[in-house]
């Protein structure tokens, strides 16, 4: 087998970013086998040790502890991982950051007290346990609001962006059902938006699914001409989860303002990644998720504009918490974690963006060095760098005589990235697959909590 031997030193030499957010781990890597392009690359990676700074204070100690626990789980895995009949040593690389991110250890540290000692119900009004939980929830509400330029009063905690999207789309249309019967959205929305719209169609509402151009952006003139007197909502996602393009939010907001139509955006993929200003974008509703921004899973927030006030019909009935829009006990630890993640994102967004962009550029350069037919899908100018979706515009025969995709189909047990490898629906809508030579597209999700080794290992062929 002719393969390139890659040394640990080679991998680690020139691309170790220092990250200010954590005393972060530098995992030495031993790369056992690396077969060059065009065959699938098998990266058997074993990460052996970790380095953290010594703890000096009690909170440093907790942080070191939670970091160490996470790292031990991730890296120190002498027996390897066995799953679905496949055994590998170490754990796979993770490059699927748009599906979910790891939780920042500082977020875990913020959450822990609310599991262990401060576990009161935030809706208990008669004792200290309730008051301290309530106060923590309100602090988190302010932290989330601060990241998007909103007032804390405009934030409703939910279980995640899926719930926010359901409340926004069905809730608005049900509230205005006597006057407004038409929704405008795009063909490339997340499934929870598309399914909410389909549900409305089954109830007799009309939905226009705007196509996107080959750059993944909607045509503003087409949006304008789709507006009808009974249009009750425009819903356009801010950053696409597969292609990573950033829609023209301010321009879309302007059109909605001109026609006095509420504008909802699914901002799950954009929170903490680029600056958001709800007023600049003129959004009435915005869906946010905790686990895309290094916060916990199971928590999200819905921004609901107060002036002019947007009204929705609740999708769930119960105790009337969260202004009656999301009944049920607010999960204090999750909310605290989401708030902490937002606060960290606000402080570190600029640095993180630079770091993720550098990782993306490095990865793209490395890929293109070996595969000149690889193109990035979607607008390169209006594109979040942590989401790298590419296609290969050529297929080549492999040595067994069958055709093979020459893109980044690394051994998926060893490298984890989006599973929409052969045919992502956004790419279809963008017309990318109209070209007979295009055989595949996949998405790599790079995050700031990942490390440069992941990028490096992906581009070794
Ligand atoms: C664009 C977008 N919207 C909504 C969701 C759903 O988010 P959650 O898991 O918080 O419900 C996701 C996550 O996959 C997403 O990427």
Description:
The protein has a domain at 107-343: Type I PLP-dependent aspartate aminotransferase-like (Major domain) (Aspartate Aminotransferase, domain 2, 3-Layer(aba) Sandwich). By secondary structure, the chain is of the alpha/beta class. The longest helix is centred in the C-terminal third of the chain and has 39 residues, at 332-370. A hairpin with a 5-residue loop joins strand 15 and strand 16. The radius of gyration is 23 Å and the shape is globular. Helix 3 (105-116) packs antiparallel against helix 10. It has twelve helices and 18 strands. The model is unreliable at 1-57, 395-424 and 431-441 (pLDDT under 50). The strands form six sheets. A seven-stranded mixed β-sheet has the order 6-12-11-10-9-7-8, with helices on both faces. It has a three-stranded antiparallel β-sheet with strand order 13-14-18, with helices on one face. Strands 1-2 form a two-stranded antiparallel ribbon. The chain starts with 7 loop residues before the first helix and ends with a helix. It binds pyridoxal-5'-phosphate. The site of pyridoxal-5'-phosphate has 13 residues, from helix 5.
